[in-house]
Amino acid sequence: MSDQHAEQMAAAAMRGMGYPDASETPVGPDGGVDVRAARAIAQVKFRGAQTGRPDLQRLVGARAREVFLDLFFFSASGYSAKAREYAAEMDIALFVFDSMGRLTPSSPAASRALVPSAVAPPARAAGLPAEAAPAEPSPLTLWARRYWLEATTLFSAVSAPLLTIDCLANPAEADWSLPPTAAAFALIGAGMWRFRNVRGLGPNFRKL
Fold first, then answer.
1. In what order do the strands lie in the sheet with 35-37?
2. Which of 71, 74, 197, 201 is most exposed by smallest CB count within 10 Å?
3. Per-residue exposure over 49-88, b if at least 16 CB sit within 10 Å of its own CB, e if not
């Protein structure tokens, strides 16, 4: 298997996992991205030593501000322990592949990514044109689904002291139930956030 074949294998695997437009990037400088789809990017490492955390950090950097993109990494040499920990934290789908193109998931995100491939949507399974498939959600919708917990927790944490200041400034019209409510939401969100990271579920905690 050559580097090009490895990238073709990765693109085909991603198409089977629900990214129908996944394809290899053109030959030349790729900015750390070997396979690209509308909703995901991937890097493929066919040769060399075991994949480490810096390799995954470069993939995260390649995503830049497109935080709605799912991240995939395909390696023929496996991953270090620190790389697997980082992948769980950043919700990166890690796969190990052999010379026959067989994939083995090496992170929670990779195990989840394999589930949709078992039952393809009817339009894709029947080979119908892309127009027959359901419309893809917008980037804003994808962002909201992925980071709703972080956004809610941070909003509550910021709101609690601001509401307290407002109540102190206008005691006659103050609703003192709002500051502790906001603080409670912040504490609950922080607990759920911590639990999600400990379990290695990444931003898809909503699927638990």
1. 23-24, 35-37, 40-45, 70-75, 92-97, 103-105
2. 197
3. eebebebbeebeebbeeeebbbbbbbbbeebbeebbebbb
Measured CA to CA, the distance from residue 59 to residue 82 in angstroms comes to 15
What one-character DSSP code corresponds to residue 111? H
Residues contacting 66, CB < 8 A, separation 6+: 139
For 54-88, how does the pLDDT look when each residue is reduced to its tens digit (9 = 90+)? 988 988 888 888 888 899 999 888 899 999 999 99
Q: What is the DSSP letter of 136?
A: P
Helix (H) or strand (E) holding 40, with range, is strand 40-45
Structure-token pair, residue 109:
């995100």
Beta bridge mates, 177? none
**Directed axis angle between helix 81-90 and helix 108-118, to 10°?**
60
